Amino acid sequence: MNGCFITGTDTGVGKTWFTAALTRALRAQGIPALGLKPILCGERTDAEILAAANGETLTLNEINPVTCKPPLSPYAASIIEDRPFDFTPVRETLERLSVKHPGPFLIEAVGGWLVPITREIAVREWALELGLPVVVVCRAGLGTLNHTLLTVESIRATGLRVAGLVVNYFGADPGDMAAQTNPAILEDLTGLPVFKVYAGEDPDGLPEWLKF
After folding, report:
1. Options 3.30.2350.10, 3.40.50.300, 1.10.10.10, 3.40.1160.10; which CATH number does 3-197 get?
2. pLDDT in tens for each of the 212 residues of the chain?
3. Predicted pLDDT of residue 31
4. Residue 15 annotated among the catalytic residues of the structure
5. How is the chain split into domains, by residue range?
6. DSSP string for residues in the chain
7. Residue 55 CA to its chain's centroid (Å)
């Protein structure tokens, strides 16, 4: 499967917003990108956002084959709902789509990198199964150095390639010293390229390091 795996340092860091913006930008260039969120907990708003970004090319069930109603981790939701999490629809849907469409597929994770999907499988193990390069979305403000460095360290420990970091300035105070300095510090400490985004505004161009 051609594409990338988009994870975050936490939930609510802007993964869906960035996935949708990247999908729109690629499709505007004539690249038939498709944003997917195969696993979702809570309302299906994220899947609807990606459906619009995809130009309504896919159904909601193709974008999001597995939904858990409680807005929790998939593992916690499966306990609440008293049913084991079933990966089969996820795997079968991705296989069908990879045959039917050329991609690239922008696969958005559920929650952060170590969010448990089952007792044995976290987002990390799912990403390893897919084998795609990983994009990490993180916050701009105070605290992001620790969260991002831990996430990058864990991804690299699996052997997967981190393509780059997306620093989301949504909710950050432009005058905040942490938000001003964090991107350069992250670039220095990880050796990874950084792409800054401002939620509510589609990025001006695409990350040079993200090629399909």
Report:
1. 3.40.50.300
2. 899 999 999 989 999 999 999 999 999 999 999 999 999 999 999 999 999 999 999 999 999 999 999 999 999 999 999 999 999 999 999 999 999 999 999 999 999 999 999 999 999 999 999 999 999 999 999 999 999 999 999 999 999 999 999 999 988 887 899 999 999 999 999 999 999 998 667 777 788 898 88
3. 95
4. no
5. 3-197
6. --EEEEEESSTTSSHHHHHHHHHHHHHHTT---EEE--EEES-SHHHHHHHHHTTT-S-HHHH-SEEESSSS-HHHHHHHHTS----HHHHHHHHHHHHH----EEEE-SSSTT-BSSSS-BHHHHHHHHT--EEEEEESSTTHHHHHHHHHHHHHHHTPPEEEEEEE-TT--TT-HHHHHHHHHHHHHH---EEEEBTTB--SS--TT---
7. 19
Q: Buried b vs exposed e over 180-210: b needs ≥16 C-beta within 10 Å?
A: eebbeebeeebebbbbebbeeeebeebbeeb
Q: Which of 37, 100, 196, 211 is catalytic?
A: 37
- Quick check: pTM over 0.85? yes
